[in-house]
Hints:
Elements: H1 2-27, E1 37-43, E2 46-50, E3 65-68, E4 71-78, E5 85-87, E6 94-97, E7 101-105, E8 111-114, E9 119-124, E10 127-132, E11 147-148, E12 158-159, E13 164-168, E14 174-180, E15 183-185, E16 193-194, E17 199-201, E18 210-211, E19 222-225, E20 227-229, H2 235-268
Antiparallel strand pairs: 1-4, 2-3, 5-20, 6-19, 7-8, 7-15, 8-17, 9-10, 10-11, 12-13, 13-14, 15-18, 16-17
Helix pairs in contact: 1-2
Amino acid sequence: MVRSLWSAATGMIAQQTAVDTISNNISNINTNGYKTSQNEFKSLLYQELQTKTTSANGATKPIDSQVGLGVRSSSITTIFTQGSFYESTSDTAFAISGDGFFGIQGSDGKTYYTRNGNFQLAVDTNGLTLATTDGEPVLDTNGKKITFPKNIMASNLTISQDGEFMYPDEKNNPKSLGIRIGLYQFNNPSGLEKQAGSLYKATDASGAAINEATNNNIKKSSIAQGYLEGSNVQLADEMVNLIVAQRAYEANSKAITTSDEMMGQANQLKR
């Protein structure tokens, strides 16, 4: 009986984690660059009820006698499928088509990565710096902060598909500023560590960042100006997953109730 109580309890805990994950996905359905997460489960150790299973005449049976001890969450995997593009009125809104990430310099000086291209031009002593809405600088292909001269008009600033910033000359022809926004890829993006604000941190599991500008062995990403990438959360799928997790939670709670009733009946036999 104790095994059934424990197994059902682990099931409730695992399904609660699944509901937490689904709830986070739904709450971020309108977050730019957000990538949906998926809960993965795995069974716990099995207990041998009989070390040697034999028939009445001593012959070994083709199957042994084991009972499971429950389940737990093994991982929460991030799904990096492409999100839908939607138009933005901002001249410094950029959406990535492909597997690339923007490089961001965090407040701690470390480099983080994001798919959220909702950037702004911030004024500082060196000119205009391209930054996130939280004021964190965006990095170029050399890992340096992207800075423009103070006389730059954001409405005249354009960007090519490969990330090269352009500005019109005296004849109103787009001319390269010699600045290219950094795009980075990872061998295993699912190994990235999630941070607040749709930021990701490189880990040993994800591998080091691969600079698209210096590596010709990868498929390059492209940038669309005036667009933002929405989340890739599918609300219908999340609602179905939520119902499934709720039903599993209820089933496990029912198993606990049944086990408790059976133990109560067993205790009453001696009366």
